[in-house]
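input
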Amino acid sequence: MENKKREVREGDDDDEMKMEKFYSLLRSFRHARDVRRRELELEQHQSNRKRMKAKPEVSFEFQDFTADIHFRKPPLVFPNPIPCDTSKDNQGKNKNEQQQDHGLDLQLAL
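output
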C-alpha cells in the first residue's frame, strides 16, 4: 500500500512540475508579446511625429478661390428621370400619352 501512495505522490509532483513549466512558458510568451506591442506602438508614434513635422503648412488666400474655372469639355446634361409636374390630374394623361407613344397595350386582362 505504501508503494502505491508513493507512486501517486511522485506522479503528482511530476504533474505539478509540468504545470509550472507550462505556466512559465505562458508568462514568457505574454511578456514577449507585450514588449513587442510596446515597440510597435513606439515606432508608430515616432513615424507619426515625423510625418507631422515633414508636412508643409498650407495656407489659402482669397485669390485661390476667385480664379475663373475653364472646363475642357462641356458638362454632361442628363434628362430628369422623374417629371417635375406630378399633379394627380396630369398623371392619368401622362399614362395615356406614354401608352400611345409606345404603341403597346401593356395592361393584362383576364
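quick obs: The mean pLDDT is 76.
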